[in-house]
Amino acid sequence: DDTLANNEGSGSIKVRFPVVEGNANFNGQIVDVPLDDLKEVTIAMLKARIKDDTGGLAANEQKISDPFLGILPDDRTLAFYNINFGDILDLSLLEPEDEFLVDNPGPGDVKVQFPLVAGDDNLNGQVVTIPLDTLEVTIASLKEQIEKIAGDSATVGNKVLVLQMYDTDEQRVSYPALGYLTNMHTLAYYNIAYGATLQLTLLEPEADFLEDNPGSGSVKVKFPNVLSDANLNGQVVDVPLDTLAITITALKALIKDDLDNMPANEQRLSYHNLGFLEGEHTLAYYNIPMGSTLQLTLLEPEDDTLANNEGSGSIKVRFPVVEGNANFNGQIVDVPLDDLKEVTIAMLKARIKDDTGGLAANEQKISDPFLGILPDDRTLAFYNINFGDILDLSLLEPEDEFLVDNPGPGDVKVQFPLVAGDDNLNGQVVTIPLDTLEVTIASLKEQIEKIAGDSATVGNKVLVLQMYDTDEQRVSYPALGYLTNMHTLAYYNIAYGATLQLTLLEPEADFLEDNPGSGSVKVKFPNVLSDANLNGQVVDVPLDTLAITITALKALIKDDLDNMPANEQRLSYHNLGFLEGEHTLAYYNIPMGSTLQLTLLEPEDDTLANN
Predict the structure, then answer these.
(1) How far apart are CA 303 and CA 290, in angstroms?
(2) I need a labelling partner for 507 at 20 to 30 A (CA). Which of 58, 83, 156, 455 fits?
């Protein structure tokens, strides 16, 4: 709005065309593009105008860039990027990816220039060659090859060096004029040919950055500007911090208070060319100093995503590469969908299971390049996933192999919640020593219960933490959500040194006091092709109180299930797993209006056949 206010009325944007040898239409000229106003003029609309001025240059062959912001995506407006009348944007031409691949068949190689760091022989500006079979390799895959090569010896000048390992998320890969390259796109998409030299930039190690940037301070968070919401007016909020060792997830929790309790998983934080920041990493990990300004972006309402994706379509899923397994060769699988409505991540995993000959859903991780791993219980539309988008499939390493790769002993850390006015819950991090990662989440909760009864030094204070029964605890891990009691840390591929998040249920009596009166809960039935009565329908179950037990709730559901006994039903809620019969909805902090998932026991013969 500020940009629009400064650019009222009509004007023009200037576009500098590239120089193309032998083509008189592209001789470096600056073209004036007149506009009636800046309001709602998107980059896509600007490209349409350029198409007219160039005799038909397709929009997907154009790149519009700003000297400081880099290439501008099609769906944003000029005003969003603070482009003013009279500004000069640059036009460059991308050949369509499929044509570029035809013009540049493999194999070949690209070069990666490492950074130059004084006093570090491993980072002396050396150029490493990476052989490729095709340019249809994504930047993410290229980073994996850089990580692998960095562990090998390399001849640089007359010296043979063993390069340090650089995890993919410590790397930024850039190409002149294009800036930092996005993980999800391919070299061909960027028209980067064999023989090209890419630039590698590395983040400073987290511990070093913390040492260089000690103490407290604050970061600023710039909120989005939403015309329909007076609380989101582009304001910049100062967030005081004790340390830069705070995780992005914890930072989002602090922002939550300024966002009328908008959950952290509906927030995206970005910083300059780093893109969206992942929850489990800290500000120090990303080398973000005190005083920096981060950009907050919010997920659009689910209904808006559905409105933009009416009818049928498909989601693409990029499979991982597993050596020796032809079913996992990096292929992109098209998953057709009748519509996006109510298609959850769990349902997508079920479809993938069919395409992989039985890959269990709990061995799959579905991730989005910016949002990270997506929990099962949310819909694609909730995460603003559109038809045509590409999601990534990754696999959990088998538990026994993970244990071999991560022998004990060691420890994991558990971060307690932060509750204002409660010294026992001040976000402290407790270390739990372990002999092995073959410990179940249930056993870990028992250790948390025991530790919580001991004294703990937090800052300069010695506190006696309250006891938290195992069934009052929920333990989560970034991107995996809440962890199920029966599984082990190794099952979840959680290594020594990891930090888990502890969330506590509100006491049942308090929850009932906060949620009095009658209402209803919804129960989503399973979809069983052989049973017309089980077609995924959602049944509304009226209740007088949330003090009803799970067993009593099942008795009410029984009437809708052709008298199926309660002991053949299992009810679950989000990541709490199956709910136990003697406990109430209030015990589990489940409010009126919630949707529970109903699962039915399979026939006994089926279980015997599988065992």
Answers:
(1) 37
(2) 455
Helix ranges restricted to H, 82-161: 97-103, 139-150
Does pLDDT of 153 surpass 80? no
Q: What does the alpha-carbon distance between residue 298 and residue 229 come to, in Å, rounded to a whole number?
A: 12
Residue 233 identity (one-letter amino acid): N
Q: What is the pTM of this model?
A: 0.39
Query: What is the number of other CB atoms lying within 10 angstroms of the CB of residue 184?
Result: 17
The tally of CA atoms less than 13 A away on the side-chain side of residue 92 is: 13
Task: State how far the Cα of 393 lies from the Cα of 385, in Å rounded to an integer.
Answer: 15
Compute the C-alpha angle 74/75/78, nearest 5°.
80
- pLDDT of amino acid 240: 92
Share of the chain above pLDDT 70, in %: 76
Handedness of CA 273, 274, 276, 282 (dihedral sign): negative
Which one, of 113, 105, 103, 94, lies nearest residue 156 by Cα? Answer: 113
Contacts 24+ apart (CB under 8 A), 514-521: 515/546, 515/586, 515/591, 515/592, 517/545, 517/592, 518/542, 518/543, 518/544, 518/545, 518/592, 519/543, 519/592, 519/593, 520/592, 520/593, 521/553, 521/585, 521/590, 521/592, 521/593, 521/594, 521/595, 521/596
When the pLDDT of each residue in the chain is averaged and rounded to a whole number, the result is 78
Q: Which residue has the tokens 């007016």?
A: 233
- Assess contact for 536 and 344: CB atoms under 8 A: no
As given in the structure block, the two tokens for residue 535 are 């077609």
Closest by CA to 316, choosing from 330, 301, 326, is 330
Give the separation between CA 180 and CA 321, rounded to whole angstroms.
24
Token pair recorded at residue 6: 């400064």
> Dihedral of CA 486/489/493/499: which sign?
positive
Give the pLDDT of residue 412. 92
Q: Return phi, psi of residue 215, to 5°.
A: 85, 180
The secondary structure of the chain in percent helix, strand, coil, rounded to multiples of 5, reads 25, 30, 45
**Taking the CA atoms of the chain, what radius of gyration do you get in angstroms?**
27
Give the model's confidence band at 272: pLDDT under 50 very low, under 70 low, under 90 confident, else very high.
low
Residue 352: the pLDDT is 83
Q: Which sign does the torsion angle of CA 398, 403, 406, 410 carry?
A: positive
pLDDT band of residue 542 (cuts 50, 70, 90) is: very high
Q: What is the C-alpha separation between 186 and 262, in angstroms, rounded? A: 34
Instruction: Say yes or no to pLDDT of 12 above 70.
Output: yes
Residue 267 burial by Cβ neighbours in a 10 Å radius (0-12, 13-18, 19+): buried
Cross-strand bridge partners of residue 13: 33
Instruction: Place 457 in a pLDDT band, splitting at 50, 70 and 90.
Output: very low
**Quick one: pLDDT band at residue 155, thresholds 50, 70, 90?**
very low
500 touches 476 (CB < 8 A) = yes
Q: Which residues pair with 316 in a beta bridge?
A: 334, 390
Burial class (CB in 10 A: 0-12, 13-18, 19+), 555: middle
At position 487, the amino acid (one-letter code) is H
Side chain identity at residue 437, one-letter code: L
Residue 154, pLDDT score: 40
* Three-state DSSP class for residue 235: coil
Point out which residues pair with 89 in neighbouring strands. Answer: 15
522-547: average pLDDT: 82
Residue 14: phi and psi, rounded to 5, are -100, 140
Cβ pair 128, 102 in contact under 8 A: no
Whether the CB-CB separation of 219 and 255 falls below 8 Å is answered with: no
**What pLDDT does residue 463 have?**
36
